[in-house]
From TrEMBL:
Residues covered by region (Disordered): 89-128
Name this polypeptide is given: Uncharacterized protein
Biased composition (Polar residues): 119-128
InterPro entries for the chain: Peptidase_aspartic_dom_sf (IPR021109), Retrovirus_Pol_polyprotein (IPR050951)
Taxonomy of the source species: Eukaryota, Metazoa, Echinodermata, Eleutherozoa, Echinozoa
Amino acid sequence: MKLWSVERYKFFTRNQEPGESVERYITEVKLLSQTCNFDSLQDSLIRDRIVVGIKDMNLRERLLRIPDLKLEKCIETCRASELSKERMKVMDSSDSVHAVKGNDSQNKKDMTKTRQTKGKGQSFKSRGQSTDCKYCGYGHKPGRDNCPAYGKECRVCHKQNHFASMCKSMKGTKKVNQLDTQNQSSTDGEYDEINSVTLLTNEGKVNKINETKTSSPVNQIYAKMMVGENEVKFQLDTGATCNILPAKYVDKTNVIMDQNEVLSMYNKTTITPLGRTKVKLVNPRNNKKYKAEFVILDGECTPLLGSKAVQYMNLVKVQYDNIYTVQKSQSGEMTTETLLHKYKDIFEGTGKLKGEYHLVVDPNIKPVVHPPRKVPVAETTKGGVRQTHKE
């Protein structure tokens, strides 16, 4: 005999454990519900247990905003959110590794500085004056002025006063020697087809490129734009066919249109976006305004301006004179009119068959007189050409 109270207690107290995936948690909740004798309430109680028991507060808030939430929609949303975060972590980790390999001389300086700073931190710690700092990861004297991360911008989330190695958005990913590389950033998203960019006043120019003025080529180019009250650092990507923006920068009054599209990333993975919406941008360099369509992603990602946007806003100029391309045929598309014009001699006159043909008439057949044709033979031929072209 089963004790329903005990089984239901296990069900209602089952929360997602640290390090447990959403998929695993959902499976465990479903298994526990099978021994609780919930009858017709089983699906709704499983849904409620998932919403209450998940550790991701942002995901829980998102689920609570969905009216008349069904179990299937709840599970689908949880899976999509976890999958999106896992893929973003892979992308961020990949970008961090490239950043360390990108500049050998700079990396040696950073590693030397890291060792020196860490050495000092260890001496402080040995005297019992400090512990490892949650902003820089090293030991140092108390006070923000003694923290090497104070005033520095994180290369992952672009916020101030902490290194990328200690960034909260990097939880669950590998840290590479705890280096704070100043000339690289987290990975970009990729992409779907851009629909439109609308100029509100005039074209704009780039605000900042990697924070320093340089004439030499760089691996990644950035421009700061104002989105509402937020200053957002966009990566300029001429290889992207859409604009990307995290949902946290979208105003609540903006309507996000649902879509069935999937973004294909550079590493052949896919991400399902929340949808599309039009966003107003202001270039703080010259106060020129734009309105562009963005693909909205849930969670942390690098804001991105795609190929059409960066060209239209004069942030990147393509030198077409230096590009060898295969020109399109000057004849243009073959239409019925061009076909009739090109071979007009076929459709003029009565025409004449080559050679001679001998007709044999049966003398027993009575001749018949037919009325004139309503449509000339030439016009009938043209009609046949048009019909063949349509087919």
